[in-house]
Task: inverse folding
């Protein structure tokens, strides 16, 4: 797989809640960051992602714009769905990833924390 194919497969797996596929695309020692917060391990990232899919009805990525880089990929997308209180989730996110040996090694996610407030409340 090239870096764009890895990118597309990874976000498809996240959207589908496919933990096994996510793990197959990532290095076991992956490090992930959200807005420069402390790093997450692969296990923590998977748990967080599966929790989001569980709590957000009709969770989906839309309007994806992907670009390969020499070291990985960048994807901008909208995260959409319905929160447990009936409100709509609509966040624009940018993810920068480094890929080594065909596996995602690092993920850096940037988002508007205010737009995520309803999701944060739902996950609490």
Result:
């Amino acid at each position: 797989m090239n870096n764009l194919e890895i990118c597309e497969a990874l976000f498809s797996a996240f959207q589908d809640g496919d933990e096994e596929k996510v793990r197959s695309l990532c290095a076991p020692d992956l490090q992930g960051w959200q807005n420069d917060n402390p790093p997450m391990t692969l296990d923590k990232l998977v748990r967080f992602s599966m929790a989001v899919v569980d709590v957000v009805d009709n969770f989906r990525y839309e309007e994806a714009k992907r670009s390969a880089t020499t070291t990985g990929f960048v994807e901008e997308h909208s995260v959409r769905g319905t929160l447990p209180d009936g409100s709509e989730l609509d966040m624009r996110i940018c993810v920068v990833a480094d890929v080594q040996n065909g596996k995602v090694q690092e993920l850096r996610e940037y988002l508007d924390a205010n737009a995520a407030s309803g999701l944060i409340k739902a996950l609490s």
Remarks:
- The longest helix spans residues 3-16.
